[in-house]
Amino acid sequence: MDTLSPQERSKRMSLIRGTGSAPEMKLRRLVHGMGFRYRLHVRELPGKPDLVFPSRRAVIFMHGCFWHRHKGCKLARLPKSKLDFWKPKLEANRKRDLRNQQQLKSLGWRVLVVWECEMGDIERLSLIIRDFLREQKGEE
């Protein structure tokens, strides 16, 4: 049983943003500060990747651990109520993500997924991103 009324639940859910979330903004600032330039949410690409680097044929997705089912992550726990609603919804998100990533790869794009929980170690994440973005260009 939900602890909130339908109106309260609706109001709370409407506050969840699809783009421009705090982790996404932190990621954008990090990548921009590293000197890389990107386009945002390109609609023509499968899944509308969060950051698109056209000249590098690379995309980065910023995934929330809960919404995108980060395997083995404590932030990806299931809610305690309404499991008949949440399980199929979250599983559909996960399957859609995998399908979008496969489509991008088949179109010749390289894909990096950054998980919300990885934002805690910015030094490590910046090394991963730098290696990923320099991979195609052969930069040192």
Which stretches of 5+ consecutive residues score pLDDT under 50? none
The CATH H-level homologous superfamily:
VSR Endonuclease
CATH topology: Endonuclease, Chain A
Question: What structural category arises from helix and sheet content?
Answer: alpha+beta
Descriptive report:
This protein is α+β, with helices and mostly antiparallel strands. It has one domain (18-90, 110-135): VSR Endonuclease (Endonuclease, Chain A, 3-Layer(aba) Sandwich). Helix content is 45%, strand content 12%. The chain has 5 helices and 4 strands. The chain has helices spanning 6-14, 22-33, 65-68, 83-106, 122-135, and strands at 39-40, 51-53, 58-63, 110-115. The longest helix is centred in the C-terminal third of the chain and has 24 residues, at 83-106. The protein starts with 5 loop residues before the first helix and ends in a 5-residue tail after the last helix.
